[in-house]
């Protein structure tokens, strides 16, 4: 995986998808955490069982209802974030290949590879995973004797492209998976982060018995409080609980209690709206600054991107086929870090693309980062 979160003096990082924690009410969280520890430290700091605590259930049900899901609390399996959830799922699946969006999240590539599964990418379009290409890929793999374990996808504000599957697209994907008797792994870290507050029906809400849903509090609360959940089909619950125990021994009772108590006192609405407003402003600042810098260069650009409607990222693509890795190296020399497309390619191939994150830097840093990145695009001859 790329080193996304390293800090280099003098360099602006537009690489890692760090949340903007300036909107998090730290004083309120400190107060409620202190009170809980005074009253219940011997329980909250003790080993726990591989179940989601009763105090956290309402916080999960609130989020789930916003995308049409109605989880059975007894079926929820705790994780320390979606990355661990992917590792747990990967280790209980039977097969030698996972079919996924291409490009896709590098953490998923690492998770499936750790379980000795090949990740087979399917080209997408502006709505993400392409159903016709998906059906062809599944048929081709099975025709060559491969055992396809599942389809992995992020339907809402996909990482890295930011694409959103329409409801019709989601239905088509689920129909193909049903026809081929395949599980679907739905990764949903950004589903609450539409800049306008819009939500889409989760795949899990449309076919609960086929979809393994990976939920996380990293983007709607804070990543340092490592906490998430899996909502699997009923027949996978016991296997996933056993894997949870193997991989974590004991999920954090304290982390679950902090999130649960925050939600009990404050709900999600205010915090979600604060995050959305922050990312909306940052996305506009970066997109406008990059467009302005390239225009001022006096050269028509061969890079394109869609203005984000949610999530954390701009996905830049070059129509003339220039190496994204070469441009990223030049950008780093100019003092700005981005992630070239090869890190998101299931086959690890270079591509004329790169991911640029706007979620964490201050607006002034985004403006300066855009200036440095635009200079790299011009210097490497990608504007002509």
Automatic annotation (TrEMBL):
Residues 12-373 form the Aminotransferase class I/classII large domain. Keywords: Aminotransferase, Pyridoxal phosphate, Transferase. Pfam families: Aminotran_1_2 (PF00155). InterPro entries: Aminotransferase_I/II_large, Class-I_PLP-dep_aminotransf, PyrdxlP-dep_Trfase, PyrdxlP-dep_Trfase_major, PyrdxlP-dep_Trfase_small. Its cofactor is pyridoxal 5'-phosphate. The keyword Transferase applies. One of its GO terms (molecular function) is pyridoxal phosphate binding. It comes from the Bacteria. One of its GO terms (biological process) is alpha-amino acid metabolic process. PANTHER family: AMINOTRANSFERASE, KYNURENINE_ALPHA-AMINOADIPATE AMINOTRANSFERASE, MITOCHONDRIAL. This is PLP-dependent aminotransferase family protein. It comes from Cutibacterium porci. The lineage of its organism: Bacteria, Bacillati, Actinomycetota, Actinomycetes, Propionibacteriales.
């Amino acid at each position: 995986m790329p080193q996304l979160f390293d800090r280099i003096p003098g360099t602006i990082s537009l690489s890692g998808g760090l949340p903007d924690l300036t909107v998090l009410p730290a004083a309120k969280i400190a107060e409620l955490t202190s009170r809980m520890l005074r009253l219940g430290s011997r329980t909250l700091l003790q080993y726990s069982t591989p179940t989601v605590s009763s105090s956290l259930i309402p916080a999960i049900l609130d989020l789930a209802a916003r995308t049409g899901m109605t989880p059975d609390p007894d079926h929820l399996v705790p994780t320390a974030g979606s990355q661990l959830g992917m590792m747990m799922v990967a280790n209980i699946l039977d097969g030698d290949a996972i079919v996924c969006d291409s490009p896709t999240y590098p953490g998923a590539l690492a998770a499936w590879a750790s379980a000795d599964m090949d990740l087979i990418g399917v080209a997408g379009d502006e709505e993400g995973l392409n159903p016709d290409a998906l059906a062809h890929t599944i048929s081709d793999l099975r025709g060559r004797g491969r055992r396809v374990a599942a389809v992995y996808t992020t339907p809402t504000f996909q990482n890295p492209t930011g694409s959103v599957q329409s409801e019709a697209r989601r239905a088509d994907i689920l129909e193909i998976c049903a026809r081929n008797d395949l599980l679907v792994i739905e990764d949903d870290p950004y589903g609450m982060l539409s800049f306008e507050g819009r939500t889409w029906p989760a795949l899990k809400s449309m076919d609960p018995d086929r979809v393994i849903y990976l939920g996380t509090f990293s983007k709607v609360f804070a990543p340092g409080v490592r906490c998430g959940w899996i909502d699997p089909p009923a027949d996978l619950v016991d296997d996933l609980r056993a894997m949870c125990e193997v991989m974590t021994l004991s999920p954090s009772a304290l982390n679950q209690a902090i999130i649960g108590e925050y939600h009990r006192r404050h709900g999600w609405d205010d915090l979600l709206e604060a995050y959305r407003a922050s990312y909306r402003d940052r996305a506009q600042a970066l997109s406008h600054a990059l467009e302005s810098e390239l225009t001022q260069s006096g050269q028509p650009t061969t890079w394109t991107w869609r203005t984000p409607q949610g999530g954390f990222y701009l996905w830049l693509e070059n129509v003339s086929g220039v190496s994204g890795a070469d441009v990223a190296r030049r950008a780093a020399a100019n003092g700005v870090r981005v992630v070239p497309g090869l890190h998101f390619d299931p086959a690890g191939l270079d591509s004329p693309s790169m991911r640029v994150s706007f979620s964490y830097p201050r607006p002034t840093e985004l403006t300066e980062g855009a200036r440095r990145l635009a200079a790299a695009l011009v210097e490497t001859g990608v504007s002509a």
